[in-house]
Amino acid sequence: MRLNSLKSTGSLGAMLTAGALSLAAVTASAETMLTVWSWDPNFNGDSMQRAMARYQAEHPDVSLVVADFGKDALEQKLQSQLASGSNQGLPDIVLIEDYAAQRFLLTFPQAFEPVGEHIDLSGMAPYKVALATVDGTAYSMPFDSGVTGVFYHRADLEAAGFAQDDLVGITWDRFIEIGQSVEAVTGKDFLVQPFNRTDLLRLMLQSAGTWYTTPDGAVSLGADPRFRKVVEEYIKVMTSGIVQDAAGWTEYVGAFTSHDVSGVATGAWITAAIKANADQAGEWAVAPIPRIDGIEGAVHASNVGGSSWYVMAEGPNTEVALDFLNDVWAGDSDFYADILADKGAVGSLLAARHTAAYDAPDPFFADQKIWADFADWLDVVPEVNFGVFTFEAEAAFLAYVPDVIRGDAALDDALETYERRLTQAIR
Fold first, then answer.
1. Among 23, 198, 315, 414, which lies 20 to 30 A Cα-Cα from 153?
2. Domain 3-146+305-359, CATH
3. Residue 35: how many CB atoms within 10 A of its CB?
4. What homologous superfamily is domain 147-303+388-426 in, according to CATH?
């Protein structure tokens, strides 16, 4: 147990003040039931249930019920409940996608318990802590990371005369050259992206340490020259002939799992979809993402997706919820090894990289230690502030910039219109 690492604070009231019980001394009352809201019961819900099973070894009177929603439905329900001003029916713990974190934290500043004031988060991936930090206070318990890689069919790379190391430590310009060589030999595009999503752009932006808006809420296009540079690189990739345009998510996954394309660049969570095709065992490899040339501090690591746990400040069992998160989620490396091995969940606890599960060769990837690689890349993902308007920014981007990729508009004109529309949206 690590209960003595909890920090007391006045925000939980008299129970945490001097002379009263500290959170470290909390013992659950009989039949305490924590309520959790999340989506994807087989991944998020099951991981939470596994965490509770470990907690119950020393806290047998605490149980857990997970209410499952679709992600959009959960966010809408939480938004409506908080906007109503009523605390009735709120859960103890809720899962929020990282891209929506700042929107909830800034819109409802009193709704969430400042987890960082009670639990030592120094062992978690810094970028995950930063994305849910407001005015120096961290509000989330980081969960799954969307640390990225380039997943690819090894045979396609080899057919064009390249080795695995040829994809390591390269720029996007070199990646395009390799992709074009592979396409010339195999007839397959190297990457795929759904036409109505911006996953590849998200990946490139965060690798360069920038986002659609600045930390103070300004549109990055006019305030951060890195944004324009990333967009230029993104368009170069999208017009290079190495990216297949998928009609939707099903077609996107089908393109690389059926080997219609050579690979995909996205978060580690896609591993489960790839490994679902048992007949392809030994055929795959993972490389770090390319770096954007010309941007100081740009790295070969990024993030796509991911979510974190939040404790409701007015939930029925706030103290127990914090104790539970601290006891398991904040430092139990064996728990993270368990959900990695069984769920393919790359957690945010940096110490977990030292477990056998992370260091094990993966036969599906020709004995590459992919989880050790992801753990190393996780540690250097740049911190960015996703702000409140990520989805508005992406809607504006998708409305105008694809015209440039199709050759129907000039980049300057498209970006001027994008900037004007986004500025209007965030006023």
1. 198
2. 3.40.190.10
3. 19
4. Periplasmic binding protein-like II (3.40.190.10)
